[in-house]
Amino acid sequence: MNIVLSVKTYYISGNNDDAFHRTGSFRRVLPPGNDTTGISGIAVKSTNVNNTYINEQYIPFFLEYTLMSEFNILSKKLIPGVYVIPADKTPFIWFGVIFPRYGLYKNGIFRFRLLIDRNWPNCDYPKVIFETPLFHPLVNPDTGEMSIQYHFPEWKKGVSRIWHVIDHVSKSFYDIPRTKTPENPEAAELLKIDNEKYMKKCEDCVRQSQVDIYKQPMHSENIDSNYLLFDVYDEQIHGTLRRSWLQQKENDNKTQNLSWVQPGSLEPFSRSNTI
Asked: How far apart are CA 70 and CA 123, in angstroms?
């Protein structure tokens, strides 16, 4: 199945040197008084008493910069098949899509939202809400929230990172935990006693995800210019770009890495004259 991701800018887990840039200048003049409007134009306040050493007017900027730092860390991690981007309107919501590459959920396309508490970084772990229905022991069938508490019993400031959460969510598609406190008891029970029926449920879930991915956002938080949208592949529209990518990949594979040390020699920067 060919699909096309249409979005203003997005992050692909892997090599990405130019990870994340907000539009506009960061060198914004701080407003007078107690204005706590952040860079993104939203009101941000921190209730943490430990921040008393920070000028109150700097708190919204401090919060957003720490989240940008988290995103830049994520952009350098190789998490296969994961696409993530912060919302344009607020840094406290990140949009994501996971493409499982093998296992029971292979070929599925699962949307999720990462909701970060506005008291960041002095808060609990972010919430992961799946918008695409996902039959999984850790996912609440009514709310779509994935439980990650068993993996993060304690969220440690400065140690626990947002990329840890996304990495854990990705791995949950391949190594399905047999937890004693599942969010979906039916899924947990089938996984335990009837693998064949559990696999059938997963197949239905994957097929439905391939249909739902083209739907427009319904949740108010998703009305955002950075929301990840998908189009059906059209050869006339997308063919040229696809061929250019494939050609670039073929050229990269033909590139030879030269040793610069002639075999049988210990002299550095020596090579055969025929190369």
From this structure: 15
